Each structure stands twice: as structure tokens, then as C-alpha cells.
# Entry
Amino acid sequence: MPTSIIFNKIGRFEVEAGTTILEAAQQFGLFLPHECGGQAQCTSCRAAILAGENNCSAIQEPEQKLLHAGHFKPPIRLACQTKISGPVRAQILLRDEFDLQLALASETGQTPRLPGVQQPLALLSGAWHDFERLVLQASAHDTVQVLQRFYYLVQQLVKEHDGHLIEFSANRFTAVWGASGNIRAAIINAMNAARRLVTTCGELNDYLEHNFDMRLAFGFGVHADLAVMGELGTGEEHRLVVLGKAVDHAHELCRLTQKANAAILVSETIFAVMRDHVPISRAFQAQFSGESTACRVFEAAPENVPATASEIA
# Structure
């Protein structure tokens, strides 16, 4: 007997009763990963049942064990094990190869312990200004998955530009450059990372618009100054920390991007190094906490052509 399944954001499809959700997706050429071949040996085919849960087959022990081990709760099911007997609406939860890669990845790594030092550092502070919109409108699974996507992209870009991600909390992050002592190279790398991140976050917004009908505002602040840097942790648990007014200044620049409707705001220290190599859209005065006088702030244009160390060495 024919019935139907709606894959959210994709469309409605007619299938025979008794068809699994995975089989339905395969029948119509839809992306629905199944790393174990649909044998209930992994959770890559996970899907959320948005409607018609009563028309889905009961959860059997192999599926229950996998869902429990992965901390997945209803309405999440394994598509390879879920047969439908009537109309169902489902959301594929790993929507593309990137989502699959992140779900399968396991990250390991160690860094040598760094003693406490005070030296010039370049800092990049970034944020989603209206992240709460996603939290309120998306499911818990989707919210964390999007956040994992953002974290991975930020981490990779910071690493590609020889920086260190020192803070990541929900909608905000902080990265640092300059541990080697070359502050000019640190400023260049921090700026290149910020400009690349604008493009990357634009692509992430395309993903959000396609899957969640929303776009979020991003902002980045870049500053350089003296700061205290060291490493905390015991055993294999190491964490790089940076302290001081320089960090606060970078955070304030980031927060100011929302009010100023700017993607990248930089301090006068950054401007002095990059003025001839990164287009500046505008300049204005801003009062920061702990400062007796207003500071000059510059909006850097997020172009796709980065400056290079050799240009201003």
C-alpha cells in the first residue's frame, strides 16, 4: 500500500508502506549518509521525526543501544531501522558531507606547556550577535550541530593562519597571534584570518538560510598590545590563556561591530601596520572601558585578497 514521506526542506515522496526512511531517501537520490551500510552499526543516518511518529516502526534493541550511546533522544531515529506505515515528516540531520565529516571526526592533540610571559600579541575577537535566534528557532540537536560547524571553521582558519584559539563559548571566540615574538607577522595573520572569516561566515549564513530560513550577523574585532600569556592544565589537559586590557579591547571592538553595522573593526595599532595593505571604509571615535579618552576605530573592508608578510616586512 502506498504512503508518503516528507523530507523537510526537500519535498514529499510516495513510497510503499514498510519502506525504511533510508530506503526512501535512496529511492529518490537524496543525501542521507549510512556509513555502516544501513546495518544499525552507526548513527550517521540519524533523522528527526517531525510528524507521524505513530506511523513509524517501534525501536528495536540494536537501534536503542546506538541511540542511547550517542545520547540521542526522541524524536531522533536511525533512518535505516525506521519503517513507515503511514505519512511521516522527517528531517535528515547530517545534511551534507561536511556535517558527516564533523560527526565522524575525533580530534586529538597536545601543545607544549608555555610559561607565563608578557609580550605584544595580536588578538581577534569574533561573535554571532543574534545567536539566540538560532537557539530559539532550531532544535537542540541542530543548534549544537551548527555551533560545531562554526567551531570547526574558526579553528581551521585560525590554525591555517598560525594562530591559537584560546576561547570558544557558544556564540563567541577569541584567538591570539604573536607567541613567536614577531608582532608584525602576528598582526598580518590576525587580519588575514578576520577577512577570511567574513567570507566563511557568509557561506555559513547560506547554509543557515537554506536549512533554517535565517541569516545571522557576525562581527570581528582586531587589536594588538602587551598582554600576559601562559598555559594552564595538568597532564594532557593544556589550555593557552591570554590576560589583560588587550583582550578586553578586542572584545569591545567586536561588540561595537553590531552597533556600527560593520564586519571588521580594528584598533589604531592594527591600522598603523595595515593601512596601506587593507582597504579602510571609515574611521570614528569610540570610548572604551578603562580609557580616559576616546580611541580611534577603523572599519576594515572584508576583501578576498589578503595582505602578505613580505609586503610590509
The CA atoms of residues 74 and 246 lie 46 Å apart. The first strand starts at residue 2 and ends at 7. Residues 106-112, 305-313 have pLDDT under 50 and may be disordered. The two ends are 73 Å apart (CA to CA).
